[in-house]
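ESCALATION

Customer reports they have been waiting on this structure for their group meeting. Please prioritize. Original submission:
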Amino acid sequence: MDKVTVEVIRNAAIYASEEMGVVLRNTAYSPNIKDRLDHSCAILAPDGDLVAQAEHIPVHLGSMSVGVKNTVSFLEGVGEELNPGDVVLVNDPYIAGTHLNDLLLMKPVYHDGRMISIVSNKAHHVDVGGSTPGSIGGRVEELIQEGTIIPPVKIVEKGRFNWSLLRLLEANVRTPGYFHGDLKAQLAALNIGERRVLELASKYSGRQVMEAWDEILGYTENYTRNILRSLGVRGSFEAEDYMETPDGILGIRVKLTFSGDGLRVDFTGTHSQIRYPLNAVYGVTVSATSFALKTILDPVMPMNQGFLRAVEIHAPEGSLVNPVKPAPVSGGNVETSQRIADVVYRALAEALPGKVPAASCGTMSNITVGGVNPDGTQWAFYETVACGSGGRPCCDGVDAVQTNMTNTLNTPIELLEKEYPLLFTEYAVRSGSGGHGRYRGGNGVIRAFKVLQGGTRLTVTGERVKTRPWGLEGGLEGMPAEYLVAKENGRILRLDSKDSIILDEGDTVIIKTPGGGGYGDPCGRSDAELKEDIEEARVDGEWLRIQMESCRGNI
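Update from on-call: job pushed to the front of the queue and completed.
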């Protein structure tokens, strides 16, 4: 097929994915989607191979093809066909590939009686039921306790919307208004994606569009194999990192085996699945692994199913990175995904020294808060809190940024105070939390809010309280996270990285996120850089004193 035409269709598909995301954002109801942008959109081939994606959430995008392929197989298994005008909804993590909060919607695109594409999106709904407001974390031991499980079901069948199903789902979530509005926004995004694909088919032909899909995937496969070949790396490289759980510190192990133009990623040796919501379904493992590899191998390379033709990912069934149903998984999507990325980076640092940054904070610091309003309605709020990225071979890490498997924005304080009984009291960079090094790790964040309504439940799902983000090439670790509750009588409660408590009116929640690890020998940092660190309040005077003493023998 003509290469120019293929490139035009490839870029048109990417733009269509981006436009889908704009529509989803602009028509969503919840702050979590319209302000934090916790959603993703993609265009796939009829068999579920990922063709194009927008620059949205890594953990969504890497699992999109897994979810669509699983859904298509499920429907075939129960004798259901994907017809023109159908839209399938699913959130079962063992099918959709992430966790219950992420509703996956997919719509077949037909042209001249033939399916030529599937358009799809995922969006994180603020609440899907379960034992905890926000539906993430808490003391749950099986999937059904995390929320409403939706197997693949047609929310729209041949153009007819299933209102009965919507009413059923609304009755099983705490925020039905948000649920309704966000679901409709997802449908609107699918419609615009379908329209753009059909425009391509009308301009060229359905056959040419499908041929272009094949060419696009083949190109990316060859691109990936050429990169792996050019590295000149052969052999295996191993690493281990750790998760904090109620059962103790549990390991995630990985072995990267380079074989010329191919790469095998093997998680054999990782701890078995646990009865706590930190298990990461296979789609999450694929997402985190693909993300880490792409950012180091070539950040600007095209990303689609062709990449996974050159990269084999093995995750033992029944492990923390590929559990068996009904193990709970809500935190696996947000926290274990971060550790999977970390451990892959650590192994890559052995294979490709000088190309990999130190560890970023390693947590999304998930905060869910909810309660019952005086009129009997319920409310729920969810957000992830920024942190510090790791020092890099070239330069410092970045302060106060969402890292790795999350790509969301912060939720504006003004909006949160308008929507919920919360009053924010502090929002600042956590000076000195980044690890020391020739290139300093980025600083984390301090975010604090007072609860204005008693009986509010707070659930924390975080990491790096007992372990720290690692440094590289002599760089030091970043500061650990802290989760605190300040009572009005002055008493301070220190929470675990996984905790859930009922708050009294007037309690203040204080989140201190980790900084990134440092890169390189701290004594290599110049006096001018140290002075700038102090002037810009990136570190404090005590940090400088320790630095000077350890490196120069004076104060």
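Sent to customer with the following note: The longest helix spans residues 176-203.
Escalation resolved.
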